[in-house]
UniProtKB/TrEMBL annotation:
It comes from Streptantibioticus silvisoli. Binds 1 zinc ion per subunit. The gene is mtnA. This is Multifunctional fusion protein. The lineage of its organism: Bacteria, Bacillati, Actinomycetota, Actinomycetes, Kitasatosporales. The record marks C164 as: Transition state stabilizer. It catalyses: 5-(methylsulfanyl)-alpha-D-ribose 1-phosphate = 5-(methylsulfanyl)-D-ribulose 1-phosphate; 5-(methylsulfanyl)-D-ribulose 1-phosphate = 5-methylsulfanyl-2,3-dioxopentyl phosphate + H2O.
Length: 568
């Protein structure tokens, strides 16, 4: 097999390749003196490669785990073309726990399992799609990080210190922190890179130095214990490192030695920047103290390359990682954002969660969310949203009673966490069809009563005109509108599909809707605006019931069906 090609910038080829039922990877244990490819044809071989560090780097082991599930799905193919799901899931569990600290591994395995019902080819398609996504993700993060460094550091050219290996060997391609260094080099902004050895396995000296040499980037190896001295002597303008797991408060687990570099950087006023994909965030882990740190064998410390460097019976303290408190980190850069642990809310959106809980309790005190009914959501960074958890008493809701979901699909980011509200798919339909930043679904009495009187088996609309309160809905034409009333199907997903189609087809429609025999939903740029829209709709419905206007739904003219025309 041929070695990976020499590269001259961040657009490097992948170090993981699918080849006719097997995973082919660069054996990182052999670098830098020999480039050897491993062909992994079984789940046990993939697990072995991960545990022995032939494959390493949080994104890379996650992708290897996903492709390991694809190997299992192909090996356990039934005669009808489907997968033997119990066997594949058993293999997936072994893969997900091959190494404990990097969150990407379990995340990637869980994601690829969602395609299991489609058979082996669907699993493989999902896994290979993740390879392409990782490359694009890393390229965006690298460029964003390079831009940030240029803003943080006025000196040109730059002197960068990095630790461990965060390049294409640690990912599908490009790299994270090393990807940012290569991007800076492509802009002719790098004077020199100091590469920490990263003892005891020397990932910096063996792997990062090799990648920099491949890319013609000037570098020097730096003894691990000399990083602080280099900063004290003014030899470092910025520190760039990766991450294996990032807690909700910004605490970051990375290769052992990272914490010490962060302390030194803070002491000497050197920016300390973490570059990692969004998949490295772990919203279930509140802080670094809850991150499990892998302990490696003593043999890695007392000997290297077959040569003993200490007494053979010596004991060793050999953690693979340490945890850097968020307060020591200048910024965490991902493909979607720049997170400042000193200023921003945590990845899970703690401030947004608190606001969500506050608004929910307010809706409860108004009598609009009795018991556990109703749900609120707010869009956070990128395509994520927080929504109230299912089955929670809304009067006692706290910031811990929310679920992070994909705003486009409503699928929880953490499938093992609290269950999202049953109406999450309706919120997702609104987010897909509009630029809303928040959605509120409640059982406000007057709007719900109107929904009970006007709904039917198909979508109808309730014409509204002449109400001063229509101005509060921020309509293009505040003199009149048509409020959609959706059928209350047994499957919430069916309601969501109809909502998505209707709202997308009526961009000038009102920021709200009714669901027959159920309740009212409103949305806005944020929770405050969504609440204002909801109050306007509730007041208009109250006026309708008081006889100010007839409660008179008509057929949805876009549906092409006959509806009930008189529900009064």
């Amino acid at each position: 097999m041929t070695a990976p090609a020499r590269v001259a910038g961040p657009d490097a080829e992948s170090s993981l390749v699918w080849d006719d039922g097997a995973l082919v990877v660069v054996d990182q244990r052999q670098l830098p003196h020999k480039v050897e490819l491993l062909r992994l044809e079984s789940v046990d071989e993939v697990i072995g490669a991960i545990r022995t560090l032939a494959i390493r780097g949080a994104p890379a082991i996650g992708l290897a785990g996903a492709l390991g599930v694809a190997i299992s799905a192909h090996r356990h193919r039934r005669a009808d073309g489907s997968c033997d799901e119990p066997l594949v899931r058993a293999d997936a569990e072994k893969l997900a726990t091959a190494r404990p600290t990097a969150v990407n591994l379990a995340w990637a395995v869980r994601r690829v399992l969602t395609a299991l019902e489609g058979g082996p080819e669907a699993v493989l398609a999902e896994a290979t799609a993740m390879l392409a996504e990782d490359r694009a993700t890393n390229l965006r993060a690298a460029r964003r990080a390079a831009d940030l460094v240029c803003d943080l550091v006025p000196r040109r050219p730059l002197r960068v210190l990095t630790h461990c290996n965060t390049g294409r060997l640690a990912t599908a391609a490009v790299g994270t922190a090393l990807g940012a260094i290569l991007e800076l080099h492509a802009r002719h902004l790098v004077a020199e890179v100091l590469v920490g050895e990263s003892r005891p396995l020397l990932q910096g000296a063996r792997l990062t130095a090799w990648e920099l040499d491949q890319a013609d980037v000037p570098y020097r190896l730096c003894v691990d214990s000399a990083g602080a001295a280099a900063m004290a002597r003014g030899m470092v303008d910025v520190v760039l490192v990766g991450a294996d797991r990032i807690a909700a408060n910004g605490d970051t687990a990375n290769k052992i030695g990272t914490y010490g570099l962060a302390v030194a950087a803070a002491r000497h006023g050197v920016p300390f920047v973490v570059v990692a994909p969004e998949s490295s965030w772990d919203p279930r882990t509140a802080g670094g103290e809850a991150i499990e740190v892998e302990e490696r064998p003593a043999a890695e410390v007392i000997g290297f390359g077959g040569t003993a460097v200490g007494p053979r019976d010596a004991r060793a303290f050999n953690p693979a990682f340490d945890v850097t408190p968020g307060e020591l980190i200048t910024a965490v850069v991902t493909e979607d954002r720049v997170f400042d642990p000193h200023r921003d809310a945590p990845a899970a959106g703690r401030d947004a969660a608190r606001q969500l809980a506050t608004f929910t309790r307010e809706m409860y005190t108004r009598g609009w969310m009795p018991g556990t009914s109703g749900n609120l959501s707010v869009r956070t960074s990128g395509d994520r949203a927080l929504i109230t958890a299912s089955g929670r008493d809304k009067g006692d809701l706290t910031e811990n009673d929310v679920v992070e979901v994909d705003a486009r699909t409503g699928v929880p980011v953490d499938p093992d966490g609290p269950r999202a509200s049953a109406e999450t798919s309706i919120h997702a339909a609104v987010y897909r069809a509009t630029d809303a930043g928040a959605v509120i679904h409640v059982h406000a009495p007057h709007a719900t009563a109107v929904a009970c009187r006007t709904g039917g088996p198909r979508t109808a609309v309730l014409p509204l005109s002449g109400f001063e309160l229509l101005k509060g809905l921020r309509l293009a034409d505040p003199s009149a509108t048509a409020l959609p009333v959706f059928a209350n199907h047994a499957r919430v997903a069916d309601i969501a599909d109809e909502v998505a189609a209707y709202v997308a087809g009526h961009p000038d429609g009102p920021p709200g809707l009714l669901i027959a025999d159920h309740g009212v939903t409103a949305w806005g740029a944020d929770l405050a605006q969504a609440r204002n829209h909801l109050e306007c709709l509730e007041s208009i419905c109250q006026l309708l019931l008081l006889g100010a206007r007839p409660v008179w739904p008509v057929a949805d003219p876009t549906a092409g069906r006959d509806e009930r025309t008189d529900a009064s």
